Amino acid sequence: MFKLIHQEKNSSARLGQLATAHGAVDTPCFMxxxxxxxxxxxxxxxxxxxxxxxxxxxxxxxxxxxxxxVIKKAGGLHSFISWPKAILTDSGGYxxxxxxxxxxxxDRGVEFQSHIDGMKHFLTPEEVVxxxxxxxxxxxxxxxxxxxxxxxxxxAQVAMKRTVDWARRSKEYHRPSAIGRRLLFGIVQGATxxxxxxxxxxxxxxxxxxxxxxxxxxxxxPRTLIYNTVGVVSALLPVNxxxxxxxxxxxxxxxEAVGLxxxxxxxxxxxxxxRNGTAFTSSGKMTIRNAPYTQDFGPLDAGCSCYxxxxxxxxxxxxxxxxxxxxxxxxxSLHNIHFYLELMRKIRQAIREDRFSEFKKEFLSKYIxx
Length: 370
Known about the structure:
Blueprint: E1 2-7, E2 14-20, E3 23-27, E4 29-32, H1 44-49, E5 54-58, H2 59-64, H3 68-73, H4 77-81, E6 86-90, H5 93-99, E7 103-106, E8 109-113, E9 120-123, H6 125-135, E10 139-140, H7 153-173, H8 176-179, E11 183-188, H9 194-207, E12 211-214, H10 223-236, E13 243-245, H11 251-258, E14 264-267, H12 269-275, E15 278-281, E16 284-287, H13 307-311, H14 314-322, H15 326-352, H16 356-366
Parallel strand pairs: 4-14, 5-6, 6-10, 10-11, 11-12, 12-13, 13-14
Antiparallel strand pairs: 1-2, 2-3, 7-8, 8-9, 15-16
């Protein structure tokens, strides 16, 4: 399912390709987040034009609205949202633990109240895999238990062991005869404790999955701990299978993680920032609502070829935001998605040419962290 094409000489950065039922995905890749079946403010046609090969949706949100039966009747999630390429669905475990009004966790599964209407639900790991199979997901993520930072060792250990048990049950349920062939990833948990991360990785490898994700990072811990956790876990994962870092998505963090051997990324940052008037550029983040752009008739980013940069000025975009016109947030969101996907293309090219380390240094020297 995964072909490792090249590893850069001076780092752990890897070039690869992941085969899915809806097409190949070049890695390292960024997956725009379409939580509720839509990447906010960006159409599927615009995503294709920006060369997106895979998007992420969320089983928790789709389970609540519009409901799995509606999507099944539509022919599956790809048909329902008119997206012809690959889809990875998150189990919604993090959303259950962070959004649900009330939750009770036990070894059997999770009982929770919907954040929408307060209705009670109970889901087992098997049911979560079944929901994603009904959606027609190309890549399924099992139910896991994520803890916030800081977490006590005992709490993190219990959550890690439960995550492994749920992963085993998910793998046992995930049989071609029962639900059809989909890729199933395992999720490494263990908070910031290296021994728990090692134990979780080893136990998941014993079970065997199509790929492996690093969960429970960027939940409040400092960057040094994020990078340490990613480096420790990445080094333990198989060379010939994809490695997915969940929910980490600032450009500087992506570049650091690629250098540690990560292949797949997702984050709501590009569209969330875009809706609030912040654009990502080769020189760093730009808050387009600010006064200095009132008479700035240059594009958001002179080196960008997206629709927004080809056609509109910073002054016009500032005007759209300050008059609360919807077009403004659409254009900046579209630009940010394009920026992220183009960044991944440049990263892949740099790895292919054995100059990722130089690319990283050059990019960060121009990209002003703010």
